[in-house]
């Protein structure tokens, strides 16, 4: 081999090494959602899930994950926490969900059970439980690698055996979970084999969780190696009665805990000379001590800009207390509670607040120089951008706030969002929120441009919004086929508004070939994410039975009650309850229920007067849009094309499941249902 060829190989090897080093230096975004459900309300509590979750959460935090921890979640709480987690997982390298609690299978599909589930009626599984496939589908749309770990393979404790699953009643499985088909780059781990029961064990932790949290802390172990070690431990601990199981389609290695950070460099002393007493340089402690730094939420890791006055390699900092939520990082790596860093790295420190957490956090350091050390503590306070506060969208899985409805967007929102776009031009969410603010102000052309910019930058709700423009004819020609194309794109990315809109179109064959089964499935998925309009649509489908879906008034009622729990004005109105007319509605809590709704009386009426509040006359001017429930659906388009636009039911001749103009979750008349729900006493 010639010298020139050898040099060529050496050059290529160097390039490969540089590329590999650069890849390794990248700080991966890794997020974990850890749930422990112990205190069930309708069935006996479980002993270990709460402690299991704490132990596993600590393990993931030591591994440098952004960890969302939740215990004893109700269905509503799960929806909220899961949305925050999905916003954090958007674009993540690895997204993990760990669940310990009750779960069982129906018709080969697995369900995780919130603590407030009663599961007494056939429809309860749809409105009270969490379908594992929905969780996995959302993770697939957000992250490169998905890992789901389930310590939920216990006996089914609920007496009822048959539940609604799409369009038929299915008998629930007696024990364990069903095998799950994983997509590319996914690992799903079960505490035991499919159809079998896992044990709580005799200690404070279940055998599976105990083995997992211990084995996963071994540095540089790929997760499939970790799971093999967990399997050996659990089989031994249970005398072969429990065999952990996993389905894996991983093509990339997943190392949960990397090698411990190298300790900060210390001054090398000459041979035979003892440690030198170094005083801490002036200003080192003051650069950190008693600082309160405001950190914006949802814009990525923000530099702390500490202006540390020391670059001496003899000075190092060790983390004495890690923030309770969020992640500390350097540009090349995430920091864990055991990390150390050199003095010249301090100015590169960054912090990313956890979405949904507003409480300030403290970070403690031990600053060392030779054999001297001093503590220093600073506070990091998450702050919401005024644009998010003024124009954030409800159920936006890339958003950071609960969101506002179109008519709740104030006059100063556009200015706030223009400032946010200028400060953070690459944050797609701000472009979308600017579009919402401009639309609320009647500036349709400018709004369309901002929303298109957001869609081009990857904001999923903005893609849905483009579909709503085409569907409603706001500032453009009505084009249902084009609208459904946008809805399909956003639905594939997990947006519940798009799922509901596409589900209606497919169920009714509006601008697309009818597919009742897929349409019904999408509506159910949107409802499971908390979309009230989808719940109302399903209620109307199940009340009468449509397109081959059997009628079941009790099932319809279950979805309306679920809408009321989420403060859906239209759900209240369908049942003849007083519709709220201001955004500040009282939460409908169980303690104010004096009777139980047991039936629905169908009354055929020539006009749809089903509301207890006085009906407003038809508007001929572009006046204020009435409040539309907590999911922000569109009003009907006005002739001027300047109507506000934001939501699931587009307010066009979408038809929806109502069979007419679908105005979504409004406090006004829905002309679609010929036989409305009569007034029902008891709420």
From TrEMBL:
Gene3D superfamilies: 3.40.50.1460, Tetratricopeptide repeat domain. Residues 659-672 have a biased composition (Low complexity). Residues 28-157 form the Caspase family p20 domain. Residues 608-683 are annotated as: Disordered. One of its GO terms (molecular function) is cysteine-type endopeptidase activity. Transmembrane segments: none annotated. GO terms for biological process: proteolysis. Pfam families: Peptidase_C14 (PF00656), Sel1 (PF08238), TPR_19 (PF14559). Residues 641-658 have a biased composition (Gly residues). Keywords: Signal. This is Caspase family p20 domain-containing protein. It comes from Rhizobium loti (Mesorhizobium loti).
């Amino acid at each position: 081999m010639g010298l020139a060829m050898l040099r060529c190989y050496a050059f290529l090897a160097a390039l490969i090494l540089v590329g590999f080093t650069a890849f390794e230096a990248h700080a991966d975004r890794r997020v974990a959602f850890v749930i422990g459900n112990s205190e069930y309300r309708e069935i006996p509590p479980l002993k270990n899930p709460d402690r299991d979750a704490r132990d596993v959460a600590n393990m993931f935090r030591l591994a440098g994950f952004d960890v969302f921890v939740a215990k004893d979640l109700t269905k509503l709480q799960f929806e909220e926490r899961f949305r925050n987690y999905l916003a954090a997982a958007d674009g993540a390298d690895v997204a993990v969900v760990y669940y310990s609690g009750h779960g069982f299978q129906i018709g080969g599909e697995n369900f995780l059970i919130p603590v407030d589930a009663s599961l007494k009626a056939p429809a309860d599984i749809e409105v009270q439980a969490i379908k594992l496939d929905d969780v996995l589908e959302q993770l697939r749309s957000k992250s490169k690698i998905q890992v789901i770990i389930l310590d939920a393979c216990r006996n089914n404790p609920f007496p009822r055996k048959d539940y609604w699953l799409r369009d038929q009643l299915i008998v629930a499985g007696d024990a364990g979970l069903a095998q799950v088909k994983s997509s590319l780059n996914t690992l799903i781990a079960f505490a035991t084999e499919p159809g079998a029961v896992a044990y709580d064990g005799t200690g404070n932790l279940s055998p599976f969780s105990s083995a997992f949290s211990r084995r996963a802390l071994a540095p540089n172990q790929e997760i499939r190696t970790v799971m093999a070690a967990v399997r050996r431990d659990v089989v031994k601990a249970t005398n072969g009665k429990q065999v952990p199981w996993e389905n894996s389609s991983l093509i990339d290695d997943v190392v949960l805990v990397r090698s411990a950070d190298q300790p900060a460099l210390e001054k090398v002393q000459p041979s035979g000379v003892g440690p030198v007493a170094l005083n801490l340089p002036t200003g080192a402690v003051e650069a950190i001590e008693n600082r309160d730094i405001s950190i914006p939420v949802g814009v990525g890791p923000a530099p702390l800009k500490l202006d540390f006055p020391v670059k001496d390699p003899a000075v190092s900092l060790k983390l004495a207390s890690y923030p309770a939520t969020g992640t500390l990082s350097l540009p090349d790596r995430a920091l864990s509670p055991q990390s150390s860093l050199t003095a010249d790295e301090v100015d590169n420190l960054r912090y990313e607040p956890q979405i949904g957490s507003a409480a300030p956090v403290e970070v403690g350091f031990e600053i060392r120089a030779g054999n001297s050390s001093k503590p220093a503590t600073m506070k990091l306070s998450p702050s919401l951008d005024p644009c998010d506060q003024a124009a954030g969208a409800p159920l936006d899985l890339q958003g950071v706030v609960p969101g506002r409805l179109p008519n709740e967007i104030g006059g100063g929102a556009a200015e706030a969002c223009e400032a946010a776009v200028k400060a953070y031009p690459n944050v797609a969410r701000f472009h979308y929120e600017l579009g919402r603010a401009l639309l609320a102000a009647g500036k349709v052309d400018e709004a369309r441009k901002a929303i298109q910019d957001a869609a081009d930058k990857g904001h999923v709700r903005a893609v849905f919004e483009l579909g709503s423009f085409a569907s409603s004819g706001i500032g453009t020609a009505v084009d249902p086929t084009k609208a459904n194309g946008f809805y399909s794109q956003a639905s594939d990315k997990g947006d519940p508004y798009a799922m509901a809109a596409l589900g209606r179109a497919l169920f009714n064959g509006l601008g697309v070939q009818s597919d009742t089964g897929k349409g019904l499935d999408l509506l159910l998925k949107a409802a499971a994410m908390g979309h009230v309009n989808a719940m109302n649509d399903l209620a109307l489908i199940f009340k009468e039975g449509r397109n081959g879906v059997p009628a079941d008034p009790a099932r319809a009622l279950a979805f309306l009650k679920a809408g009321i729990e989420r403060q859906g004005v239209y759900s209240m109105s369908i049942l003849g309850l007083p519709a709220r007319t201001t955004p500040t509605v009282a939460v409908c809590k169980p303690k104010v229920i004096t009777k139980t709704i047991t039936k629905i009386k169908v009354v055929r009426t020539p006009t749809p007067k089903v509301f207890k509040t006085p009906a407003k006359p038809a508007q001929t001017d572009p006046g204020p849009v009435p409040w539309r429930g907590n999911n922000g659906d569109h009003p009907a388009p006005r002739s001027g094309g300047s109507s506000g636009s934001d939501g699931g039911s587009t307010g066009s001749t979408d038809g929806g499941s109502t069979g007419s103009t679908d105005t979504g979750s409004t406090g006004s008349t829905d002309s679609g249902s010929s036989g409305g729900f009569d007034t029902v006493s008891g709420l």
